[in-house]
Design goal:
The protein is an alpha/beta fold. It folds into 2 domains: about 5-195 and about 320-405, Aminopeptidase; about 200-320, Alpha-Beta Plaits. Helix content is about 35%, strand content about 25%. It has helices spanning about 5-15, 20-30, 40-55, 120-140, 165-170, 220-240, 290-305, 330-345, 360, 390-405, and strands at about 60-65, 75-85, 90-95, 110, 115, 145-155, 180-185, 190-195, 195-205, 255-265, 275-285, 310-320, 325, 350, 370, 385. Strands 1-2-6-3-7-15 form a 6-stranded mixed sheet. Strands 10-11-9-12 form a 4-stranded antiparallel sheet, with helices on one face. The relative contact order is 0.19.
Length: about 400
């Protein structure tokens, strides 16, 4: 069963779950999975597992072990599972953690018109709801034993994936035989087949304190901060001349970038020479560049100051590779076709302007794509929301893509 008849049947099945999907999304929003620090992860995983158990979909819960944050008050958990049989395998992937709120009321879900509002609605509990119900509809309709859906639901995407997807890959919990991956990030109606890399440093500087009236007896760590920042701004001017050839929105996001001073601070009091200072830098790396080269450029600046006798420590607090998946792969073409059939809009491939977890799968040689119901401009905002109609639409697209890709 293919073509218009299949699409109509999928749309009808998804629509029949509209109220269930609203309730599921609302419930997920109200589980406060803010990261950092990693709150309510077990509560969320138990909720997701409860749905899967109710639907009789095979899965297991795994706790990350032997790593930072584990064994303390914020343990990390993820779910891996599968449905179906056969050699060909499509993987669904999503994260359940969200960025911290500006106000705790953001964890109270509410609906206005077709919008479901609350922290994580766009990024990406709306998309997670789409994935879950795509899996449910596939289970109900059934397909020939030509392939299977595997899935992973992970934490820690918002802090680089160290105890989420990276852990899942490095510890070999990822199912075998995956031929393509879909994840419903808030892509603002485009397909992300590539992502920028990221490299974030926190730089600590040490001087010597003294009374303000005896300033010459001190060593001003804040001055070192200014000097190093000025050198980095010079590097930034060179970096931002680099542009990617991959389409991206907004268009001026095609430049490589270096943000200096996202966080900064120094000193103990207004009348004491600052003994300590710190600031952050955040480098965003286009796919045509390499993470190693980006590190070397920054380290060269820092080494110059170390040679001058400046006491500094540079801590990498985030790093991730850029990645690229072929927009002409089998899965890419099937996804594009499914989107156009369901939405009657032209589907475009673009570069994600930030980090995206497609990078973990692309590095394994698994063509991976993000397409979801949320808007990137709504993600992380105090007024975060997602259109429930787009959540249902995404569920239809994920389901239809699975049928086309697995060749029923």
């Amino acid at each position: 069963m293919m073509g218009e008849a299949l699409k109509k049947k999928i749309e009808e099945r998804v629509e029949a779950h509209r109220l269930d999907m609203i309730h599921t999304l609302s419930d997920l929003i109200e589980i406060p999975t803010s990261n950092p620090p990693g709150r309510a992860y077990k509560q969320c995983v138990d909720y997701l597992s409860g749905l899967l158990k109710k639907w009789n979909i095979s899965h297991r819960i795994v706790q990350a072990s032997g790593e930072k944050h584990t064994g303390d008050e914020f343990p990390r958990f993820f779910i891996v599972g599968e449905w179906g049989k056969g050699e060909k395998c499509l993987h669904y992937h999503g994260h359940y953690d969200v960025v911290p709120v500006q106000n705790e009321n953001q964890f109270k879900s509410f609906q206005t018109g077709s919008l479901i509002c609350g922290r994580g609605s766009a990024d990406m509990k709306g998309g997670l709801t789409s994935l879950l119900y795509a899996l449910r509809v596939i289970q109900k309709i059934g397909f020939k034993e030509l392939g299977k859906i595997t899935f992973s639901l992970v934490p820690d995407e918002e802090t680089g994936g160290g105890l989420g997807t990276r852990y899942l890959v490095e510890k070999k919990f990822l199912p075998k035989g995956i031929m393509g991956m879909l994840m419903p990030e808030p892509t603002s109606r485009v397909i992300w087949n590539a992502n920028k890399g990221a490299l974030t440093y926190r730089i600590f500087l040490r001087g010597r304190s003294a009374h303000a009236a005896l300033e010459s007896q001190g060593e001003n760590a804040f001055k070192y901060l200014i000097d190093i920042a000025q050198s980095l701004f010079s590097l930034r001017e060179m970096i931002k001349r680099r542009k990617t050839k991959i389409p991206v929105s907004p268009p001026d996001a095609n430049r490589s970038s270096l943000l200096i001073g996202g966080q900064t601070g120094s000193g103990a009091s207004f009348n004491v020479v600052p003994e300590h200072a710190f600031f952050t830098i955040d480098r965003r790396i286009n796919p045509e560049e390499s993470l190693d080269e980006a590190k070397k450029e920054i380290e060269a600046v820092l080494d110059d100051y170390r040679k001058k006798g400046v006491s500094l420590k540079a801590e990498i607090i985030q790093e991730g590779e850029s990645s690229f998946a072929d927009p002409e792969s089998e899965l890419a073409l099937v996804l594009k076709q499914s989107i156009e059939e369901v939405t009657s809009e032209t589907a475009r491939f673009e570069l994600c302007p930030g980090l995206c977890e497609i990078r973990f799968f692309n590095r394994l040689g698994i063509p991976s794509y993000a397409y979801g119901p949320g808007l990137l401009e709504a993600a992380h905002s105090p007024n975060e929301c997602v259109d429930i109609n787009k959540v249902l639409e995404c569920a239809v697209i994920c389901t239809l893509t699975a049928y086309k890709f697995l060749g029923d």
